[in-house]
Amino acid sequence: MAHLTTPDTPLSNPLAGLGRAILRGLVAAAEANPRVREADRLKAMSDEDLARMGLRREDIVRHVFRDLFYV
User: Fold this and answer.
1) What is the model's pLDDT at position 43?
2) Cα separations (Å) of 5 from 10, 15, 18, 24?
3) Is residue 15 one of the residues assigned to a domain?
4) Range of the domain at 64
């Protein structure tokens, strides 16, 4: 018995190609957001550096998006 697979091309499944394109666009938009870049910058810091800033690692997202969250 042989199992053959074919590559998933936009022509073989146009909805899959559209879904991937939409997902790539959403990821690109999120990565371009300055808040996401700031969160990534803070996550790359050591725990000691964060502590000097008065932050804990688990509070980074809350800190970066503090004006949007009321928690």
Assistant:
1) 97
2) 15, 19, 21, 25
3) no
4) 34-71
Q: Does residue 39 sit within a domain? A: yes
List CB contacts of 57: < 8 A, sequence separation 6 or more.
43, 47, 50
Residue 6 located in a structural domain: no
DSSP conformational letter for 15? H
Number of domains within the chain: 1
On whether residue 17 sits in a domain, the answer given is no
In this structure, the number of other CB atoms found within 10 A of the CB of residue 8 comes to 11
Tens-digit pLDDT string for the chain (71 aa) = 666 666 655 566 788 889 999 999 999 998 889 999 999 999 999 999 999 999 999 999 999 999 987 65
Task: Fill in the DSSP letter of residue 12.
Answer: T
| Crossing angle of helices 14-32 and 34-43, rounded to 10° | 70
pTM over 0.90: no
